[in-house]
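pinned: reference chain
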Amino acid sequence: MARITGKDADVVFNSVNLDDESGQYSLDFDVDEIEITAFADAWKNFLAGKPSLSLNISGTVDLAASQGDATIFAALGGAALTYDVEPDGVTGYNGYAIVTKYSINVPVSGPVTYSATLRHNGTAAAADGAAPTRA
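pinned: its structure tokens
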């Protein structure tokens, strides 16, 4: 089994490469649990619901106009935009996502950092309901 590190990871949102300021990201895949338990069942029963994907990105703030802060802030509450994440710099996941959360942390004695949460919202077009593409 091949093992990789995150040192070559790529993360792009709305065609802006966030590699030079982001230091961590995670892809969180979730599936709703739909309970279908009947009175006669000895144990609870569930069906799998619709899957979802959240992309959580964090890094140091770069306030330049062409960097992550300007890109992510402009997308907050707006339409879904393209994303592409590649844990090894080659193979990864892509689609459209909306920004659902954006935080900036400003400590007295440390770097100014940000974190953002993006929610997958389609592949060929925003809100088309399609799964992320793995390529």
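why pinned: The radius of gyration is 18 Å. The mean pLDDT is 91.
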